[in-house]
Design a protein that fits this description.
Layout (H helix, E strand, L loop, with lengths): L6 E2 L9 H9 L19 H17 L6 E6 L2 H13 L4 E6 L2 H10 L4 E7 L18 E5 L1 E2 L4 E2 L15 E4 L16 E5 L10 E6 L16 H6 L9 H16 L1 E2 L2 E2 H21 L4 E2 L11 E6 L5 H10 L2 E2 L10 E4 L6 H18 L1
Parallel strand pairs: 1-15, 3-4, 3-5, 5-8, 8-9
Antiparallel strand pairs: 2-10, 6-7, 9-10, 11-12, 13-14, 14-16
Helix pairs in contact: 1-6, 2-6, 3-4, 6-7, 7-9
């Protein structure tokens, strides 16, 4: 009898559903009688085209992506999109950025290379999403990071730019909570995210772009990163990350099949994520030993940073957690402390085990 796998709380590349990993292993040498591994297939062959088409169709169904949005399978990650988005959408003009943490701050710095960037609002040293956004009426778009992986800040509702007086399309970097909940497409012009949090292995970047935003790329934009070119070629202009698309497609099938609390599919995933986050935050809030500093109104369901009251115990905490089968809990080097990333594939049992460990460690060292 094999021992259970440890619970991996890595912020990304992150844990994947065990059934998906088992299917990948079973199909590694021969995908469905083709005689080839997916890693060996031509991206233009009928076998891989069928994989990519099903993956896109399942993703469109899961997220209810409207027909006037293109789904692009790209490369470069979220950091790459920080340049690719302004090269495609800014028209070399004005871009408004809302800074809510480390990733949106990086996005603003990169966009300044291609556009006139204004920081419309900045979280600064606070731990809550700022209000009183200063939006320009002639901005080409407004950018927000809807979940800050490092800082643990999440928009639980997308901003309504029209209500805020801006006619600009909203661009969202949703890398670390993509596929964890529905998206209100009526408020979005473009969404992007790396797959390595909730969806699959590193290497695949997903872009959802509204049709009317295609065709405005700057002359300096590389052809392979021009959204119009990629869309026209059904994401096959260059060789896409084929194996990552295959694994992502299996994850989409897993999400569709999931049942939890009387719900199925994306609704089940969202409810399970709500329950996992509530359980962990409740344990942290009830403790005098641990601290989460994010305002309750915008705490992330995906990435939960926390700090020990006695930081001299950090190394002991991590060592004992590893022994208990709880991996990758160290916080980002820029903020310190601890961080538990509880993405879609993290089962409720993993969070329950972490909470029990938190209580035990506090009882012994608090």
């Amino acid at each position: 009898m094999t021992s259970p796998r440890p619970f991996n709380f890595s912020p990304g590349p992150a844990t994947l559903p065990e059934p998906v990993l088992r299917q990948v292993a079973a199909e590694m040498l021969d995908w469905q009688g083709s005689g080839m591994s997916v890693m060996e297939m031509s991206h233009r062959g009928r076998e891989f085209i069928s994989i990519a088409e099903r993956a896109e169709a399942d993703l469109r169904e899961l997220l209810a992506v409207p027909a006037n949005f293109r789904i692009l399978f790209m490369q470069g990650g979220g950091l790459g999109e920080n340049a690719i988005v302004p090269m495609n959408l800014s028209r070399g003009s004005k871009v408004d950025m809302v800074v809510t943490g480390s990733w949106s701050r990086k996005s603003a710095a990169e966009a300044r290379r291609y556009a006139d960037v204004q920081i419309a609002a900045d979280i600064g040293a606070s731990h809550t999403i700022p209000g009183d956004w200063r939006l320009r009426s002639d901005a080409a778009y407004v950018h927000v990071c809807t979940n800050e992986t490092i800082d643990g800040v999440e928009f639980h509702e997308l901003p309504d730019l029209a209500a805020l007086g801006s006619p600009a399309p909203l661009v969202i970097d949703c890398s670390s909570h993509l596929l964890s909940r529905p998206i209100d497409w009526s408020r979005v012009g473009l969404a992007f995210g790396g797959a390595q949090k909730n969806i699959g292995p590193a290497g695949l970047t997903l872009v959802f772009v509204r049709d009317d935003l295609l065709g405005h790329a700057l002359d300096i934009c590389p052809t392979a990163f021009n959204y119009q070119t990629v869309a026209a070629a059904q994401s096959m202009y260059n060789t896409p990350p084929t194996f990552a698309i295959y694994v992502a497609g299996l994850v989409f099938q897993w999400v569709k099949s999931l049942a939890y609390a009387g719900k199925r599919g994306l609704a089940a995933i969202e409810q399970r994520n709500v329950d996992k986050a509530a359980l962990l935050y409740a344990a942290l809030d009830a403790s005098g030993f641990y601290e989460n500093r994010v305002d309750a109104s915008c705490r992330s369901r995906m990435n939960v940073p926390f700090f020990l009251g006695n930081e001299a115990l950090n190394d002991r905490f991590l060592a004992e957690a590893k022994t208990a089968g709880l991996l990758q809990l160290k916080g980002h080097k820029s903020v310190g402390g601890m961080r538990a990333s509880i993405y879609n594939a993290m089962p409720l049992e993993g969070v329950e085990t972490l909470v029990a460990f938190l209580k035990d460690f506090e009882a012994r060292h608090g």
